[in-house]
């Protein structure tokens, strides 16, 4: 008989995700606060929160292909939690940048977001993740109906922006960002039918609006 | 090991020193890996004795210093310098060594010499970063740097053989490295084996890697941003944790105004 995940397993899995995501975040901030996180705790925290946010975002995108492949429909129930942790880490990344890297220099923050392309795309990705986090509850999902799925498809753009943010931010060695690009593209390729459909629909709409004008 | 030197007298500062463990555990030295903690992890077996430092090219009397000569040829003094990395962090470090000018004079430079070219040891067996482009951050080794001759002869330009009273740890550029405190850190080339005087502007490693981001001069300049981040301010690596971090304004020439006359006819925006 094939193994089937039931609700008990899902709850256990969620507990594991909470522990694996929350404790390292707390512990790393603690180490930074007592100066035990490398010589430059700010850089170390920025890197840790950034790369963890990316990992969690990729994990959240892995859920639905994995559920399909393993025929474990219930697995989809952990996706929201992973997505919310991805958002939480991304938010911490941004807050560390504002509080400890820029030391609350708001004019500098504004000019950096505008002037530095890698910060612009990173900020855009954060805005998308914020919108997705804010509309992640069951109630809102029900209210938005089909619009909800459309809104949450923006996560595909977010992952590309995050990959761009990463590769533009490194000084010279782009091996790690390239690995992350590969992982992102593999996960997006799992949705190629969906993306193709969306693209064709856009094209049709474009032609339709042209012929009416 | 401990060094015999005269303590800092002329080159001192009111700034708080960066703690020794941060100076020796947080390094950019791609020959030993591109992460900041890679050099301390990968450089501990690095053999610096025997060592040969050759000074040749357009000189009257080429010389080669052996390992012991590095500490005996010239009197050692301590200098406290600010180090400003192009990545917008900075440290305050007590170095031990001698002025670069005194070393170059030993070889009696010819009047036609216009530039000084420096080269790091090339030894892929000992330096894992040199084994492939992937492990070494895309750099075409050996690492090379250069100064104009008047910059090299400026009293501030320094050859360090130690820090915090001891010989340099390998990750900080043992046994001998350059320290040019008014320029971004990458100019201060490490583990030098050759200094060559020339009449042509020498190639420099980071300029070859990204000419739009790293120029030949690389003078610390708060008014000329790196294309990807501001250079107007910097974070000082100091004592204390996350809540003790300080962002401070970056000073022109890293606060070493005495070098300004070297550049009075130069557009520093174009020659970054």
UniProtKB/TrEMBL annotation, chain A:
Transmembrane segments annotated in the record for this chain: 12-32, 44-63, 84-106, 118-139, 151-168
Main location: membrane
Gene: msrQ
Family: Belongs to the MsrQ family.
Membrane topology qualifier: Multi-pass membrane protein
InterPro entries xref list: Fe3_Rdtase_TM_dom, MsrQ-like
Pfam families documented for this protein: Ferric_reduct
Function comment: Part of the MsrPQ system that repairs oxidized periplasmic proteins containing methionine sulfoxide residues (Met-O), using respiratory chain electrons. Thus protects these proteins from oxidative-stress damage caused by reactive species of oxygen and chlorine generated by the host defense mechanisms. MsrPQ is essential for the maintenance of envelope integrity under bleach stress, rescuing a wide series of structurally unrelated periplasmic proteins from methionine oxidation.
A single GO BP: protein repair
Sorted UniProt keywords: Cell membrane, Electron transport, Flavoprotein, FMN, Heme, Iron, Membrane, Metal-binding, Transmembrane, Transmembrane helix, Transport
Cofactor names: FMN; heme b
Localization of this protein: Cell membrane; Membrane
Subunit structure: Heterodimer of a catalytic subunit (MsrP) and a heme-binding subunit (MsrQ).
Any one of the GO CC terms: plasma membrane
GO molecular function annotations of the record: electron transfer activity; FMN binding; heme binding; metal ion binding; oxidoreductase activity, acting on diphenols and related substances as donors
Binding note for cofactor: Binds 1 FMN per subunit.
The keyword Metal-binding appears for this protein: yes
Protein name as annotated: Protein-methionine-sulfoxide reductase heme-binding subunit MsrQ
